[in-house]
Amino acid sequence: MITTNIAQAKEALMQNDVVAIPTETVYGLAGNAFSETAVKKIFALKKRPFYNPLIVHIGSAEQLQEIALDIPPMAMQLAKAFWPGPLTLLLKKQSSIPDLVTAGSTMVAVRMPNHPLTLQLLQALPFPLVAPSANPFTSISPTNALHVYQYFKEEVPVILDGGACSKGVESTIVGFDEKGPVLYRLGALALEDIEAVTHMPLRIMNNAQHNRPDAPGMLGRHYAPRTVTYLTDNVEELLQQFQGKKIGLLLWKAKINPNNHYSIYYLSANQNMEEATSNLYALLHDLDKQELDVIIAERLPNEGLGRTINDRLQRATRQAE
Ligand code: TXA
Ligand code: MG
Q1: Where does L-threonine bind (predicted)?
Q2: pTM for this one?
Q3: What ipTM goes with this model?
Q4: Of 21, 242, 268, 282, which has the fewest Cβ atoms less than 10 A away?
Q5: What are the boundaries of each domain within the chain?
């Protein structure tokens, strides 16, 4: 059921049931991070392979000590600067975290989400929550409660409705090695903003080609609509190629003459990258429902959140495989 009642969500979580929770990035499928029963239910619902680890969500800075060890000073600096917010840190895990959560890794991913309902819920619970995005494995992440319901119906007993997600794409994931900070997944926090705090560039972990990558958010095909999708700098050229087909257009700034075969959407009318990011998945969900032959997406400038949007659109295409 879809509800705004935190007590109901809490009750289900206390029984090691799964609850969909709103965050500022995307909706998550949440469960007790310390309970293997709850964690297994999440994997089963998502049809997610066990090699793909989960992010632990906390409601206060103190909770971090229960979860992680030997936290690098730079991680603390980033947490101070961006939590609650769309930044996930990869840290050495405490033994309290079941191996199932981290897929056997000694590292655990942690973040403090910035959503009033979910922060209240986390603060009312005696345990942190694991929460992958609330979508079946590899499909588009949900950015409102209805998206979650459409995917899982009554299989998820409680969907906590916190409205549309303000950021609209997943958190940025950052880890650390002896040489400094490493980017594991582009996300809702721009690299430039992180580097303004680290004062050093993030090295990019690019393992998109692996079948068992360190961060499966980097898997080749992910975040994908069912409709065949293309990403291009030259929209006109692809329109020529698909003449006569029913085409969905997801545009940044290209000017296209409307016609009966086209379903045209702009990510942001005045090319605001934050707005574009928050609209991205909802528009992909919409386009995917329209029984189109093909979706053509226009590439954004490769800077700030444009980089994140291009990354997700690239993974939505078939060429990425
Ligand atoms: O914004 C978000 O991060 C959302 C909301 C719900 O918080 N969650 C999310 O979770 O995107 P998920 O499971 O869809 O993506 C988590 C990513 C995966 O690619 C996973 O492999 C990576 O984080 N990850 C989690 N734990 C990890 C670990 N121990 N080592 C390496 N990567 C890890
Ligand atoms: Mg996901």
Answers
A1: 25, 57, 111, 131, 171
A2: 0.94
A3: 0.99
A4: 242
A5: 2-72+82-167, 229-316
